[in-house]
């Protein structure tokens, strides 16, 4: 199959490396209004793709079966929708979309057209985090009190410097993917504030997000783009869970890359392999992004809460099983 990568910024290297290692997908086109970014990516990996600034232009230059959507989050819905409307499969970076109606629209469109729609969920699928989830499931009984801190430093902030609510828009969905693995009761209400801390760096901000659940469980997440590497957490965050008679903590060391490497391929590579497996499966093409709608419902409520400055009820995710 032939892919067009749309968006050639920081995260594109990770995808190119994984797709080249997989061998089942050829990178036929690189699409970015920033032509230099696309050329630099091609040079770095010795690719010879078609270069384009739009999907239409790319399709006029090269055959395309699948779009890899690596644009900033507020472009995800439009770019994925355009691709699906043109009969192309979509693998997209997170978040699937910024609100539940847009995400549902994409899932329905993919299903109606028999196309793959898959979204990156590398933090929720991290093997270390899944082991922690298993510890919680085996030892604890809900309701739970869960806290998570994810403080991230970036070598290049990219779109985040100009993004309204960058932490909630870009980072929070990882924590939502993760907490949904720990607390299975329906979430009811989200309160979110995000405050820019531009005195540290233009993209720097801190978000505080509290989620209430129907079984009484409570999740509080502190996410931020900070500057000093000494203070950062692992990108998976630092997690604490308490229940009656049970306590567990997961705090991976961000400096211990060796240990992570020993655990096998990184979670993002496993996710990309699973997406490519799904593309090549013999029977009906699945829409794995449907399983991510719960995270988008939380993101939708969090963004509304940050804008309106009040708690917001989490929208109900309709049953989208085929
Ligand atoms: N899963 C993860 O762990 C992870 C980590 C980092 C980033 N991401 C996600 O990857 C995406 C991109 O992040 P990044 O760090 O590479 O950002 P970036 O700012 O470095 O790159 C974005 C690129 O998209 C291009 N672009 C903007 N609008 C476009 C359009 N309409 N069509 C084509 N190209 C367009 C920009 O010119 C830029 O080159 C975001 O959704 C982000 O959330 C995921």
From TrEMBL:
Keywords linked to the UniProt accession: Oxidoreductase
InterPro entries: Gfo/Idh/MocA-like_OxRdtase_N, Gfo/Idh/MocA_oxidoreduct, NAD(P)-bd_dom_sf
Coiled-coil annotated spans: none
Sequence ranges assigned to domain Gfo/Idh/MocA-like oxidoreductase N-terminal in this UniProt record: 2-119
SUPFAM superfamilies according to UniProt: NAD(P)-binding Rossmann-fold domains
Protein family (similarity comment): Belongs to the Gfo/Idh/MocA family.
Protein name as annotated: Gfo/Idh/MocA family protein
Species in which this protein is naturally found: Kitasatospora aburaviensis
